[in-house]
């Protein structure tokens, strides 16, 4: 007891409980994915889970298709979200801060409720559920996650750069491409992370939006886990982790993203 | 003119974002079982939501969601605040290790967090239920609390703590009288963030909830939607959730805007 109280007298030791917690609930589970991925059901080492993925047309097709959907969703979110973030951060074009709240508000609604609402909208307008609904639903679900980080970077941007460019005779187009766009790039990058990642990893949403007709990679993983194919599911999860790690390296703005998320409230 | 187009664009986007929710809200005021049929104005769905006219399972799912969110948010706030004080006082190298570890759950997609925890629980032979869901929620909520609290610590003047010690306060007193008041706003926003994340979660919950019949709102909606027939009472429920969140967020933002203005005025 005494050594325990002495241990916690030093305040840097206060991180120990959380360190142990992280080891058990974050590091160990990830190691388990890795172990399961390279084992067969009996626990012997095997690469069969990965060869199955490559040779099994359905899983591989779903994988490629999901990446396609994620890329389209991300591009649409940038095209729709960037102008919106620009207008929101511009005091001349948008004076009310309530607008910003209105744009980030949907982030707080349960994703399933939002998806069901989309299904309801398509039903109501007598539109068929399918690919179109899937893309609309994804954009609808993740657009706020694109607008918010871009808005945030533009908000923090030093506006004297823009004024300087204007004073030095740059055309509005030049000001945008040479000053505005490069300066807002960190926001776009974290926006890409926040849209691409969830789009590629969602399950359930695609199921609901397409009446089970289109499967995304996330759904495939979930089905395998649910059906007791833990090893194959773990291998697929590992493949997804690699993709995400690659996007992560590409965007390289974790800190920005973390501080954006932490600062929403 | 430019301003007009900009405003028009924003409203158009907002219309797209809110159309689905609006449809749900409108059709929560009619009795029809199938959404899209208007059978006249009625508040029957609202009364049946609260009078227990619905399946008991929906009400218990709502209850579970809130119990889990409160427990998970409280545990994450305690664990995260203690950890933040610890991490803040660590040396550079160890601090970096802790920050990296802390970032992992935030960067991991939900499905990976869910599956990895699922594998952990089945490997250890733990029966999944209330406890595993709460542990899972604490796992993905705590990093956000750590971030919120550590930001406050970084803004704090470190000399105040030293001064308290010099003036004869015990480390415990200095902690209670100096550090805790300083990090309190961070703890509160961390708690709120953890609470909303927990209520909102679906992907992690579904993998850690087990097959014992425990349901949260998310898993209930999912199971319900898969069966094809949506419980009509979900319409008023979604509407209520939406309006509550809208009002809360507007209040928070107006208050912080006012506080900011007041601060600027006094400076």
Features:
heterodimer; A: 265 residues; mainly alpha; MetI-like fold; disordered C terminus; B: mainly alpha; 11 helices; 78% helix
Binned strand content of chain B: under 5%
Largest sheet of chain A: none
Output the number of helix runs of chain B.
11
Task: Report the order of strands and helices of chain B.
Answer: HHHHHHHHHHH
How many domain regions of chain A? Answer: 1
**What Rg of chain B, in angstroms, do the CA atoms define?**
23 Å
CATH topology of chain A: MetI-like fold
Q: Which CATH first-tier class of chain A would you pick? A: Mainly Alpha
Provide the β-strand percentage band of chain A: under 5%
* Dominant shape of chain A: globular
Overall number of strands of chain B: 0
CATH homologous superfamily of the largest domain in chain B - what is it? MetI-like
Q: State the helical fraction of chain A.
A: over 70%
Mean pLDDT of chain A: 83
CATH class of the largest domain in chain B: Mainly Alpha
Biggest interface and residues each: A-B, 86 and 91 residues
Corresponding CATH superfamily of chain A: MetI-like
The main β sheet of chain B shows up as: none
Structure description:
The complex is a heterodimer of chains A (265) and B (267). Chain A is an all-alpha fold. Chain A is 76% helix and 0% strand. Chain A has helices at 2-7, 16-37, 48-55, 57-89, 98-104, 111-124, 131-156, 159-167, 172-201, 205-209, 217-226, 230-251, 254-262. Chain B has two domains: 52-231, MetI-like (MetI-like fold), CATH 1.10.3720; 233-267. Chain B contains eleven helices and no strands. Chain B is mainly alpha-helical. Classes of the chains: A mainly alpha (265), B mainly alpha (267). The interface between A and B is large, with 86 and 91 residues.
């Amino acid at each position: 007891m005494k050594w325990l109280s002495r241990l916690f007298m030093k305040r840097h030791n206060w991180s120990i409980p959380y360190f142990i917690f992280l080891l058990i609930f974050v590091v160990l589970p990830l190691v388990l994915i890795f172990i399961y991925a390279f084992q067969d059901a009996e626990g012997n080492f095997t690469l069969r889970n990965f060869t199955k993925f490559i040779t099994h047309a359905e899983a591989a097709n779903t994988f490629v298709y999901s990446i396609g959907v994620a890329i389209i969703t991300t591009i649409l979110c940038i095209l729709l979200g960037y102008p919106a973030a620009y207008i929101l951060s511009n005091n001349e074009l948008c004076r009310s801060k309530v607008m910003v709240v209105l744009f980030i508000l949907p982030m707080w609604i349960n994703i399933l409720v939002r998806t069901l609402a989309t299904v309801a909208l398509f039903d109501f307008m007598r539109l068929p559920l399918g690919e179109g609904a899937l893309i609309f639903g994804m954009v609808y679900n993740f657009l706020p996650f694109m607008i918010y980080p871009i808005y945030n970077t533009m908000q923090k941007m030093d506006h004297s750069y823009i004024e300087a460019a204007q004073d030095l005779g740059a055309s509005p187009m030049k000001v945008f491409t040479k000053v505005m766009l490069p300066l807002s790039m960190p926001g776009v990058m974290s926006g890409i992370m926040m849209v691409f990642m969830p789009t590629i990893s969602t399950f359930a949403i695609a199921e609901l939006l397409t009446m089970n007709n289109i499967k995304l990679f996330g759904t495939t993983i979930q089905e395998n886990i649910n059906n007791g194919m833990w090893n194959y599911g773990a291998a697929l999860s590992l493949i997804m982790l690699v993709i995400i790690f690659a996007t992560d390296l590409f965007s390289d703005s974790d800190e920005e993203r973390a501080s954006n998320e932490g600062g929403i409230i | 003119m430019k301003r007009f187009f900009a405003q028009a664009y924003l409203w158009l986007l907002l219309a797209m974002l809110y159309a689905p929710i609006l449809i749900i809200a409108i059709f929560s005021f009619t009795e029809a079982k199938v959404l899209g049929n208007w059978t006249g104005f009625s508040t029957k769905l609202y009364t049946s939501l609260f009078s227990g006219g619905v399946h008991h399972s929906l009400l218990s799912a709502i209850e579970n969601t809130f119990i889990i969110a409160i427990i998970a948010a409280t545990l994450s706030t305690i664990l995260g605040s203690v950890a933040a004080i610890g991490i803040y006082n660590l040396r550079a190298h160890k601090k970096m290790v802790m920050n990296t570890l802390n970032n992992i759950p935030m960067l991991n997609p939900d499905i990976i967090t869910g599956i990895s925890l699922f594998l952990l629980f089945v490997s250890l032979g733990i029966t999944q239920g209330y406890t595993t869901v709460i542990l899972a929620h604490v796992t993905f909520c705590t990093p956000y609390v750590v971030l919120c609290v550590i930001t406050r610590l970084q803004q704090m003047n470190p000399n105040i703590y030293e001064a308290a010690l010099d003036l004869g306060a015990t480390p415990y007193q200095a902690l209670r009288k100096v550090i805790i008041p300083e990090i309190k706003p961070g703890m509160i926003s961390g708690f709120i963030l953890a609470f909303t994340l927990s209520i909102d979660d679906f992907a992690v919950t579904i993998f850690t909830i087990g097959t014992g019949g425990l349901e949260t709102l998310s898993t209930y909606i999912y199971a319900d939607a898969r069966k094809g027939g949506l419980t009509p009472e979900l319409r008023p429920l979604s509407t209520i959730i939406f309006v509550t969140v809208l009002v809360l967020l507007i209040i928070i933002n107006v208050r912080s805007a006012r506080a900011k203005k007041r601060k600027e005025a006094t400076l």
